[in-house]
Give the backbone structure.
Amino acid sequence: MSVRRALALAACGLAGGSVLLSAVVVGKQPARGGGDSEPRPGGSAVPSAVPPSLLLLPPTASCPPTAGWIERPAGSGSYWDSNWDRREPLALINLKKKNEETGEEELASRLDHCKAKATRHIFLIRHSQYHLDGRADKDRTLTPLGREQAELTGRRLASLGLKFDQIIHSSMTRATETTEIISKHLPGVKKISTDLLREGAPIEPDPPVSHWKPEAVQYYEDGARIEAAFRNFIHRADAKQEEDSYEIFVCHANVIRYIVCRALQFPPEGWLRLSLNNGSITHLVIRPNGRVALRTLGDTGFMPPDKITRT
């Protein structure tokens, strides 16, 4: 890969896919005197011309092609799309139906009616260690160590003292068994199984890896499903929700890593750069205004070192 291409990829990662201009220092130049800078209002100086120590990417530099189901904000001048979940109040009302008599007062009332009031706490749990040699999904059950890991994860979740609303889990055997063990420590919390959270290949990773290369059709089939899981489960609270909610999702490493990148509006192609242990806890917080925060990523600090695996 050429230096120019590498810089283009780096710029795409930083700008989330929209790059106007990027500059990278490629050599240290002697300090210049006097007339090369213009004063800013605040007193700082900016170069009046691009110094030779900066390599500018050409306007033709482009990011790697992205799957069609990924929507990126364009021309906003900002890296954060406040309407990422399509639940921004202004996007939920029909401005054409605005009552001309009441004017702005009615608009404010309608906006308030669409605003979320509660915070969603989402706990993404990776399944425990399982038998890799199983021929079919039903044969890929948890190992004895995996069952221990699930017990430890369940105890950790219970120790948080939170009122969990539900556990949504992948329908795959290893995730279902992990859920059953965890739920023993959270009596009364309803469990829901879904195929959307099954493991798969979400999107072609960048940079690629040599040891894992699914067929293109697998990205095409799995990617749309995992993106559907993101859109279905990861969003700000409904306007009717009055209290903060605490939800558990038991699924798989690829799914969790992709969801984290999408929720934080990082380039989703970077999902494979993250690593998650078995039974780990990832905590996402979605505020009423749509802001997203990552409290923990792949936490297994509650497990003894000899119980930690990543298979």
Observations:
- The first strand starts at residue 23 and ends at 25.
